[in-house]
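In the laboratory, one determines a bound structure by crystallizing the protein with its ligand and collecting diffraction data. In a computational setting the workflow is compressed into a single prediction: the sequence and the ligand go in, and a structural description comes out. We illustrate the idea with zinc ion.
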Amino acid sequence: MKVYNTLSRRVEKFVPIDQKEVKLYCCGPTVYDFAHIGNLRTFIFYDIVRRTLTGDGFKVKQVINLTDVDDKTIKNSRSGGMTLKEFTEKYTEYFFKDIDKVNILPADIYPKATENIDGMGTMILGLMERGYAYPADDGIYYSVSKFKNYGKLSGAKVGSGESRIKNDEYDKENVADFALWKKWTESDGEVYWNNGLPKGRPGWHIECSAMSLRYLGETIDIHSGAVDLIFPHHENEIAQSEAYNEKKFVKYWLHSEHLLVDGKKMAKSLHNFYTLRDLEERGFDPMSFRLMVIDANYRAKLDFTLDALKKYEKTLEDIDISLKAFEALPKTGSVDVRVAETLRSELPAFKEAMNEDFDTHSALTHFFKVMDLINEKAREEKINQRDYEAISDVVQNMNGFLGIIKDYAIPENLHEIAEERKALRVDKKWDLADKKRNVIKEAGFKIIDLLNSDYVIVKDRRYGR
Ligand SMILES: [Zn+2]
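The predicted complex, in structure-token form:
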């Protein structure tokens, strides 16, 4: 496997530190609001990284942290009249629902910042002892000029001035000593800890250093996030972890690009801001968003439009119908040599693409070659049992990497109604048969009649109607 490493700015061969287990840390959501589709693009990328490693036979330990205390969570919980815990738990639940809707496999551990305050405190005290951190009036700060490699990830330059910044987020023009610990102020309300440090709360950056150390150890294989985390967040994580552990923190830094909407940066003020919920309310299947993300290169900006999403939903429906029709084919006839030939070339090419810095776009073209084969068999109205099994295995294997096919349940009674419709059609009772079709439609499904007088039931998609 080859990956683009932000640290070296090169595509490198992936060699795990320990063959037994790949350690993967992904910066997770700040649970202060619904995740927007830009966040979800990043989370889908994490899932692709993890699925590719697993598909390649690695055992993976994946950590995705939940930021449940920072400037934004405190501010929004207070304005919402809720405790920090009530407030963040609510959005944590929505986060888990969202990632399931786009078929993201669960990480091994989802540590919460608020459950790791002691680890952060130990680290901050250690950094002070080693001379990398110092107390100020309003908190404890990291002295960026003390860490000689500061800027190695992002290229940010440490100036000669001695400025400090208390905000969790800031830009590259503001390279400054950043807050590891923030002393309590009135605006923090009930949110504070006393753990050998002044009454207060952690800055944002220290949580990932502390949780990565606790759950994965001093040096890990992969750390990932969206490009906007390169500075200051990941730069600061390196400074904290490498100064504290005196070891290299991360071998490979992987970053996924931004998502634009109609060519512009997503912003509530521009009315181009979408959550998954917004797309669902417009009648879209969240899985069509996953397919859109996967069809793009993770290192390129992705321009989201509702029209493009319709196109992906149509593709998703085609895949769905093809696969269900394929399953329904009579398993008869002789072995077709073209099946083995196609699979023999497409599966390795697919895996090669996935291993070439997660080239999901190219991998999809190989997946669609297999879909073409499936559609050809549907036109022939039969398939040899062995060919059927071979194709099914390859589709399953490819889907293990991509996760674009997500099963859904069809209520049992719809199958009965569909059978009744079939019988009515045999008797040429068309009106009655159509009534049965409508019952199925009202339940959110539809019948697709096949060539061989058989049929399949699929989700009735709305394409944003
Ligand atoms: Zn982080």
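The chain has a mean pLDDT of 95. Keep in mind that any predicted model is a hypothesis to be tested, not a measurement.
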